Amino acid sequence: MSPTESPNERRRYDRVGLELRGRYMLADGKEFDCQIVDVSPVGVAVRGPLTGDLGERVVVYVEELGRLTGVIVRRSAADDWFALDLRVPAYKVNKLAKRIDWLARRLAEDLPERRLSPRIDRDQELTTLSLPDGRELQASLIDVSAGGAALEVDAAPPIGASVTVGKRPAHVSRHFVGGIAVKFDDDVSG
Fold it and tell me: Which of 25, 26, 102, 180 is most buried by its number of CB atoms within 10 A?
């Protein structure tokens, strides 16, 4: 049986086959390189040189997804993969689902990574978004880089509109469900 198959299992979310590289750390502190086999917002299958014990806490670092923490709930008979039940706070489940969906679409459509700078997850940090008409709205930072940011906000200023995020002037670069992405006017990414 493969890590993505289980005849009697009824998952809360479908797993998405994404081959991503990362590192994992077992409870004893030993770290290993790994490959993500599939992932959902609440579970991940990891292929690596050593599996832990059922119930063991594992931390997985994947550049595209960040730090994931979970408990081993299944492992292969050959000990070459294990599945984690992720411990994700409720407010992050939807965000992780969107990121997984975006990665899957990017890979399926062979789209290049458009970001020039690495993004830093801001974990819903609050900020102010000032609109061209003078209104100020509360927004949650999803992630930020030297060149731009993604914000959860209840407004969709037109693409190209001048806005201010906190104290940084920016222009709206795109819309997505629940928010906007901006490019900072003082982009220091290159």
Answer: 180
The DSSP symbol for 7 reads T
Q: What sign has the CA pseudo-torsion 123, 42, 31, 72?
A: positive
Q: Give 94-141 pLDDT, tens digit per residue.
A: 888 888 887 887 777 654 555 444 555 555 578 999 999 999 999 988
Tell me if the pTM is above 0.85. Answer: no
Confidence class for position 83, pLDDT limits 50, 70, 90:
very high
Q: Which of 70, 93, 65 is nearest to 83 (CA)?
A: 70
Largest CA distance in the chain: 62
SS3 assignment, position 107: helix
CB atoms within 10 A of CB 147: 19
DSSP conformation letters of 18-76 = --EEEEEE-TTS-EEEEEEEEEETTEEEEE-S----TT-EEEEEETTTEEEEEEEEEE-
What DSSP element (H or E) covers 102? helix 90-108
Element containing residue 103 per DSSP (H, E):
helix 90-108
Distances (CA, A) of 84 to 40, 46, 57, 155, 176: 10, 8, 9, 37, 30
- Give me the count of residues in the chain: 190
